Amino acid sequence: MLAPRTSVPIEHPHSHGHSHGQGHSHGLVDSSIVRSRAGIRAVGLSLGVLGLTAATQLAIFLLSNSVALLADLIHNFGDALTAVPLAIAFFLRSGRAERFAGLGVVLAIFVSACVALYETIVRLVHPEELTHLWVLAAAGAIGFVGNEIAAQIRLRAGRRLTSPALIADGNHARVDGFVSLGVIVSAVLVAAGLPRADPIVGLAITLVILKITWDSWHTVRHSRGAWDDQVPQ
User: Fold this and answer.
1) Structural domain boundaries in the chain
2) What angle do CA 165, 171, 176 make, to 5 degrees?
């Protein structure tokens, strides 16, 4: 049975009077429109946060040449791009589109894991010396903070809007923050005289990303969103 739609009054900022001298609002706004706007705002804000985080890490990677950092920033770029299908789903106000967006999130995580794994294997076969280790450690801290902020934005909005896809992406960003801390571990171990630690940490990060992929797939596959009443079961 279809759930009844509700509407909430939204005062238009330029309410004005007519010949009868009374001010007015511009009517009622459907609750699905309110949800759509809130979802787009949340994914747009998190996109900006993660995009800035990844761009900063990219600049540091060009200085340090760390494959652990490369694995992390590749994943952060991919994580930022998952905001695109989510935003489209909220714009369309479609339960089906939101579910597909969640699957798109899972695919993006998996692709980033494959790229990180390839780069890690190359670095294990052809090791390179790391430089600017203190800057590298700072990059890991930046990744942690950026992902935690994005996670808070997505999780709060996802719970408020009853969006499994947004909640899954928020949990994904939160775990990514702790993955970024692995970059700090890499810098510390290399500074201690263990140059091979960098690709090993990169491999560990890759394995964590694959675990995130599986957990996110499970969450999206077995969950229902606020628009599911519009989706044929």
Assistant:
1) 30-230
2) 125
Answer yes or no: is pLDDT of 152 > 90. yes
Is 39:95 a contact under the CB 8 Å cutoff? no
Q: Which residue has the higher pLDDT, 113 or 156?
A: 156
> What amino acid occupies position 18?
H
Nearest 10 degrees: CA dihedral of 162, 166, 172, 173?
-110
**Six token digits for residue 180:** 């970024």
Question: Hey, what are 102's tokens?
Answer: 């969640």
- Angstrom distance (rounded) from CA 23 to CA 65: 63
| Contact present, 113 and 41 (Cβ < 8 Å) | no
Rounded Cα distance, 193 and 30, in Å: 62
Phi, psi of 155 (to 5 degrees): -65, -45
The CATH code of domain 30-230 reads 1.20.1510
**SS3 category, 195:** coil
| Helices and strands: H and E segment counts in the chain | 7, 2
